[in-house]
Amino acid sequence: MIRVENLHKHFGGFHAVDGATLEIEKGSITGLIGPNGAGKTTLFNVIAGVLPPTSGQVLMEGEDITGLAPHALFSKGLLRTFQVAHEFHSMTVRENLMMVPPGQSGENLWSAWFHGARVREEEARIRARANEVLEFLTIDHIADEKAGQISGGQKKLLELGRTMMTDAKIVFLDEVGAGVNRTLLNTIADAILRLNKEQGYTFVVIEHDMDFIGRICDPVICMAEGKVLAEGTLDEIKANEQVIEAYLGTGLKNKVLKEEGHV
Predict the structure, then answer these.
(1) The pLDDT of residue 191
(2) pTM assigned to the model
């Protein structure tokens, strides 16, 4: 679905992404792991149009989307969330969801004045869809709370819900588990798995929580120093000597050996 070919992103002399090549299969939940500074978030930003690449190419379903703006990619079904949730603080959780669908009639002053019935009908449909999303994510009990007042984990669920308010094909989730308690993290994992299985969403997930990655992701891609270091199942990644030395470190290496009964 997404193919990245020899992608580079330089900031002066620093090569944040340094010749990365990878492929995201349609219908997969792909994990992207690596140490801080490996280039994961920069790679997301380039694919999602937040940053222009220095060189290289990004293809989506065979179409060259390199350097397209985020709104153009949004219309193609490519969405991206951020490490820090970007909610509208003073609006309710439901209103945050209702803001998402583009081209709403009520945004046009002429329609608001002279086609009120159509605007109200459209708003009712969007509200109904927002309520369905809230129920799906099990956060309908906070629908009328201000988004700025809910917990960090609930904000991550809200961001996931916003992707459900449009025709998403592929969603890039950046550290969805950061600052989230285990109960809500399990809720997020359940929602991702259901969206993948029931609605055909493709996901790419940056995450440091290996239990979370192991539960939902296959394959897993490991980056280091701007390059793709390895790809495979999480077990294969853990057993990869290059990954162990470059990223996971001797601590995890010893843990893996202990689990296998070698130490």
Answers:
(1) 95
(2) 0.85
